[in-house]
Amino acid sequence: QKTEPETQLQVLPVDKPLAKLIIRWLEHLATLKRYSPHTLTAYRQDMAEFLRFVSEQQAGEVSLEMLKELPLADYRSWLMQRRNKMLVASSNARAVSSVRSFFRMLK
Length: 107
Description:
Elements: H1 4-9, H2 16-31, H3 37-58, H4 64-69, H5 72-84, H6 89-106
């Protein structure tokens, strides 16, 4: 039986190895970092939005290799898109923190 994060990740434009890493990251946040369910939901949604953006920019399924090679300009474009949606600064800061947290786990 699939857990809620696994089910939600199925609809993301990511390959299976990246999906497994995202699940591992979310489990890490839940168990070792003890993030609240609300924070986990926000981080999952932020990461999903980021991955959808990357998929649109790169015109395809996102892989770990693609993320490693992603130009800084794409990160800036993602942030600019968020700002253009008139999201509050704290939401943008959390989204950056979410994505940064994922990349830190990869190290």
